[in-house]
DNA sequence: CATGAATGAGATTTCATTCAT
DNA sequence: CATGAATGAAATCTCATTCAT
């Protein structure tokens, strides 16, 4: 990681954020120390407090920023007036694309919720619920117009989100699948399932 | 939580395990202290060391026990000689059923891998790979005999496992869905997808 | 100061109290560090927390103990049924005697009130008011029966208490005045004042 | 408290002094931080160093200024050639008047001596001794000419000073006693004591 | 087998102070 | 002369772990 030793000005805050992201992603919020973080930034532990109120704020900033960006972007990515199936495909493509380019943020936002203090926790959970709501709405409209099969749109949404977010835990940009391939793979799985439809059973 | 204050004999070890399970599930391994654990058990922190070598061992025991049980049971639950589709359905039913009755173990085994020391980490990851291997094998055989559509059985297996394991993070035994309903819901989603197949498009 | 290195058992708490008394008396509560205190006791700083909840508690214990003892003893020292003048003399003798043998406690209880957290502060101030009340009552009764001249018993009591407590700030047990001499000196000053009454002016 | 936000020019130094006086009076020298002081002044902590060499100097300035002013004024207030009794009355009036109008300075000068570094401490104690010397001299001369009863003029002086200075710790300008009343009350106490002289015992 | 007390390492945080801009 | 950011030292407190009793 870049070491901006003795860094000055507003760059330091950015360096702290970047270093915190990597460190928390790799070791977890509780497991990292501010000494390690300061080392990674190239300053003294105490100097962190010129930019941050306390350790908790570092985590909250990271998670909160991530969630607001995610929300802002999903609303642009999913066309408001399109049919549910189109929206669903857009959502899948957006979610997979966004998540594999921000694996750290996503992972932290999911796994370190527990480490947020009550107030912060509530704020983040609220944002998360809004994001989940986007998908739930799509499924609900699809169920209503008969294009999607979702007896329980909420549970189906959770299932889809779990599946897609899980990609983060094994995906490597250098791996053998491109982002597009991943999107297609998961879109097919979600839309059509894994069973090969027996043509005979479908014959007239 | 049951507080076995001043517990004696071999019960103490069991009480430690139970308390550790609950505490780690709720707060995370790094976040709990042995003092909290001792409190929950009803003994002094120092007394823990009559039963356990150190904090790490508590976590490893929990995770390792869980993984070996999981493996032993999945092999009994999935019929060895059945066709892949039948095996897949058996796997889904087993996985969902097992996971919702052991939410804490599952959650810990997934989220606290990071907190395991290298040796322990490797041991658990190996067990996990064997468990994933069961599903991957099923998908692979299904792809081979044309009954399942899985271009990439590994990724499909990860996707399915992520989806199913995600249930743990929101499931409440007192909720509105029974275990059976959950199994059906997820089986349908995995096998047939979410899109309603247009009969017209399938007509000859 | 005695250094009970590696001290064990209930003696440690006593050693902490004694060392804290001396250190706080000499440097002030805010100025001392727990490292210094631990050094004086002969243990590690962290070990203090086996006996004490935090730094504030050390101060509060000291002050609170002092005030309760003071109150208990003053009630025994001042005869309940005696005439006010006798009571006043008893109070002076008691106060001077008690204070010069416990200079540290007295000084701390007066000068470190500011360092007490609100709750603790209130508790100590309440005790202090009760002690002051003893003297105020004596003066009030003396004013009532005409034996003492105290237009404002409260202010007079404060004046007397300030004068007597001030002794602590310069008294040395090895000094040239005995405790008895001090008592007499101050009793005379309080009772008769400093002016030599001109016999002529009193003649009939 | 007045907040001279972003103050400029020579006013800043004055603002620092005023804020320091109030803060140290309320919380004590060791307990305040330069951040708090800077806040109160309306500047950044680093900016303090454009006006002050360090924290210690702030305290020393305050105490030293106070002591020199006190000394200068007491010499004007106590008539050099008057009889001891008249001088004593003048001293009492001056001391009470001066102290109740500068409660903060007086309190700090008495309670924060401990926080002065050796050199500064010595300087202030020397000034203090000179001030005490004024009263001691009066008493000594009174004892010499038979007008005052002071076996030990030093101790008597300490006693009187303690009594008078104690006023600062409870006096409120808005209270029920005027400054003049306070002076009279304490002068009577010091000169004539608290006992009502039994006329009978004085009769010829 | 439990306990109370000790340890030593280290964590987060605070603070006085410095200095380039 | 003010500022923002850095430093380095230190402070309080926590924690896993050990061990005599």
UniProtKB/TrEMBL annotation, chains A, B, C, D:
Binding region for DNA: 33-52
PROSITE patterns from the UniProt entry: HTH_TETR_1, HTH_TETR_2
Organism domain of life: Bacteria
GO molecular function: DNA-binding transcription factor activity; transcription cis-regulatory region binding
Domain HTH tetR-type: 10-70
Gene3D superfamilies named in the record: Homeodomain-like (1.10.10.60), Tetracycline Repressor, domain 2 (1.10.357.10)
Keyword terms, alphabetized: DNA-binding
Protein name: TetR family transcriptional regulator
Organism listed in the record: Niveispirillum lacus
Record lineage: Bacteria, Pseudomonadati, Pseudomonadota, Alphaproteobacteria, Rhodospirillales
């Amino acid at each position: 990681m870049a070491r901006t030793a003795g860094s000055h000005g507003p760059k330091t805050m950015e360096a702290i954020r970047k270093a915190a992201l990597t460190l928390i992603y790799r070791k977890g919020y509780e497991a990292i120390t501010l000494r390690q973080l300061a080392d990674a930034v190239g300053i003294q532990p105490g100097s962190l407090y010129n930019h941050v109120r306390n350790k908790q704020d570092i985590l909250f900033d990271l998670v909160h920023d991530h969630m607001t960006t995610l929300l802002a972007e999903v609303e642009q990515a999913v066309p408001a007036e399109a049919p549910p199936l189109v929206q669903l495909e857009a959502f899948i493509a957006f979610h997979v694309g966004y998540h594999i380019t921000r694996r750290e943020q996503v992972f932290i936002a999911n796994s370190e919720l527990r480490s947020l203090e009550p107030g912060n926790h509530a704020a983040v959970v609220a944002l998360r619920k809004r994001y989940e709501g986007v998908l739930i709405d799509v499924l609900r409209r699809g169920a209503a117009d008969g294009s999607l099969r979702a007896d329980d749109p909420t549970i189906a949404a959770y299932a889809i989100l779990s599946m897609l977010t899980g990609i983060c835990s094994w995906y490597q940009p250098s791996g053998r699948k491109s982002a597009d391939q991943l999107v297609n793979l998961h879109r097919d799985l979600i839309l059509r399932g894994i069973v090969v439809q027996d043509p005979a059973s479908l014959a007239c």
